[in-house]
Amino acid sequence: MSILSSAAPPSGYGKHTKAPTSTGKKEERHHAFYFTSTKGQHILKNPGIIHDMIDKSGIKETDIVLEIGPGTGNLTMQLLEKCKQVIAIEVDVRMVSELRKRVMGTKVKKKKHNFIIIFLKRPFESKLQIIHGDAIKTNFPFFNLCIANIPYQISSPLIFKLLAHRPHFRCAVLMLQDEFAKRMVARPGDYVWSRLSINCQLLARVGYLKKVGKANFRPPPKVESALIRLEPRHPPPPINFLEWDGLIRICFERRHRLLQKIFNNKSVLENIEKNHRLFCEMKKWYVFVVVLLLFVCVCTVVFVQYTTQYFFFKKKKHLEPVADVKATIRKVLEECDLADKRPRHLDIPDFLKLMKMLNDKGFHFK
Ligand SMILES: C[S@@+](CC[C@H](N)C(=O)[O-])C[C@H]1O[C@@H](n2cnc3c(N)ncnc32)[C@H](O)[C@@H]1O
C-alpha cells in the first residue's frame, strides 16, 4: 500500500470498446485500459445519480470524505468541489494514475469575446489524498462522511469495517447491489430478514434511498443497484458484539425453526455447555486471583482492582455449572416467551433480551 499525492499531466478521454480477455471475460476498454469486472469496475456515468449521492449525504465544506474505489474519478471530482478533503482508496494502480492525471489537469474553458481561453486549474490537488491499496486491508484514517460506489464483492466486510470504525463518522451513502441493500433494510417477518439486517440495524440506522438501473454504469453490471444511507448509532448499544454475533449465528442458521427446537439441537447444546463450563472455571480462577491479590498487595491500585472484581462477581452469582443445560435453556426461552417463536420473526429487542437472560445464567456464545 502506498500513499500517493496527485502529480501528472492531464490525459484525453478515448473511445469505449469491448474486448475479450485472455481469461475469456468481457472487459470494456476506456482511456488506455480495460475495466475489470473482477474488481467491480462499473463506472457511474449518470451525473444525476452522482449529485443524488452527494445531496443525500448532507455534505459540508468542513467534511473529510472517504471514497472507496474512486475509479476514474467521476464522483471524486464532484466531491472535491463540496468538501475540505477527499481520501480515496483504490486498489487498481491504473485507476490511481488516471485519477491523479484528472485532478491535476482540471481544464476550465472560458469564452471571452471571440476567443476560448483555456485555463489549467489545479484547485483540487491539495484536497485529494489517494491511498493505493485494498480498502479491506487498509487502516482507515479519520473521516466524517463516506460516499462511494463500491465494488460489490467487498460489500459485507466493508460495511462491518465501517461500522466498527472509531471515532464514528456522521453518515455513509453507498451504492450497493439492490438485493444486498434490501437485505440490509429488511424488517422482522420479511423473507430476507437475516444476520445482515439485524447486525446492520443494531449498529446503525439504515435507509434505502433508491433503486439504480444497470444503464447508469459503464460497463453495465449484471445486477440492479441501489443507494443506501447508513448512520452509525452513537453511542453503540452497550453489548459484547462477539457474544451477540454468536447468538445471532445460532438463531439464523435455521431461522424458520422454533427457538426451542434450535436450542434442542445436540451440537448447539454441546457448544453452549462447553462454553458454560469454561466460563464457570474462569470465574473460579478469577476469584482465586482476586483473593491472592488481596493478601499480597494492600496498595490502592490493587484495592481498586479488587473492588471492581468484587462488583463483577457480585452481579454474576453462578459459580457452579448448571447440571441440566438443556432444561435450563428451555426454561429461559419460556420465561422470555420466545420458545414458540422463530428467529425470522424476532426483532432486535427480543434478541437482546434473550442474550441477557442466557448470559445471566452463565451461557455464552463467543
Ligand atoms: C464500481 S467502481 C466505482 C468507480 C467510481 N467510484 C465511479 O463511481 O465511477 C469500483 C472501484 O473500486 C475499485 N476496487 C475494487 N476492489 C477494491 C478494493 N478491495 N479496495 C479499493 N478499491 C477497490 C475498482 O478498481 C474500481 O475502481
UniProtKB/TrEMBL annotation:
Membrane spanning stretches: 285-307
EC number, UniProt record: 2.1.1.-
Keywords assigned by UniProt, alphabetized: Membrane, Methyltransferase, RNA-binding, rRNA processing, S-adenosyl-L-methionine, Transferase, Transmembrane, Transmembrane helix
Pfam families cross-referenced by the UniProt entry: RrnaAD
Region annotation (Disordered) ranges: 1-28
Homology family: Belongs to the class I-like SAM-binding methyltransferase superfamily. rRNA adenine N(6)-methyltransferase family.
Descriptive protein name: rRNA adenine N(6)-methyltransferase
Organism: Reticulomyxa filosa
Upper classification of the organism: Eukaryota, Sar, Rhizaria, Retaria, Foraminifera
